[in-house]
Amino acid sequence: MNTLSHFAINAEDPDRAVGFYGAVFGWQYTAWGPPGFYMTEVGGLHSAIQKRQDEPFPTVIGNFECSIAVDDVDRVSALIVANGGEITMPKVTIPSVCDIARVKDTEGNTFSICRYH
Questions:
Q1: Dihedral through CA 51, CA 54, CA 55, CA 61, nearest 10?
Q2: From 3.40.1640.10, 3.40.190.10, 3.10.180.10, 3.40.50.880, which CATH number describes the 6-54+63-116 domain?
Q3: How far is the C-alpha of 112 from the C-alpha of 73, rounded, in Å?
Q4: To 5 degrees, how large is the angle CA 65–CA 57–CA 13?
Q5: pTM for this one?
């Protein structure tokens, strides 16, 4: 019962964010509900890209640390940079766990990409 069921990516420019996540990870979002709101399913989780706002629900400040499993950290890092994101921590190896890099999307959100061993 205590499993992650949804994650949202807050964005200044939701259309730009949809393009970034589509180009880097192949996620396909569908417009749903109010303007600037998109839905998809990623690995069995419901996901949204939504416009940052103050009303009626203030945007969450800070970051819930998330990691996205990838097949090649170097390849995905290059896609992130090519699509307007940035690398905030170059790839390192955590022995017997994963190769990991911290990155930032076009909207300033940070997350990790990992190739698990």
A1: 90
A2: 3.10.180.10
A3: 10
A4: 65
A5: 0.82
What is the C-alpha separation between 41 and 48, in angstroms, rounded?
Answer: 8
Written as one letter, the residue type at 75 is R
CB of 99 within 8 A of CB of 89? no
Q: Give residue-wise pLDDT tens across range 66-106.
A: 889 999 999 999 999 999 999 999 999 999 999 999 999 99
As given in the structure block, the two tokens for residue 11 are 């964005």
Q: What is the CA radius of gyration of the chain?
A: 14
Q: Which tens digit of pLDDT belongs to each residue from 21-60?
A: 999 999 999 998 888 899 998 888 888 998 877 655 555 5
Residues 61-69, mean pLDDT to the nearest whole number: 74
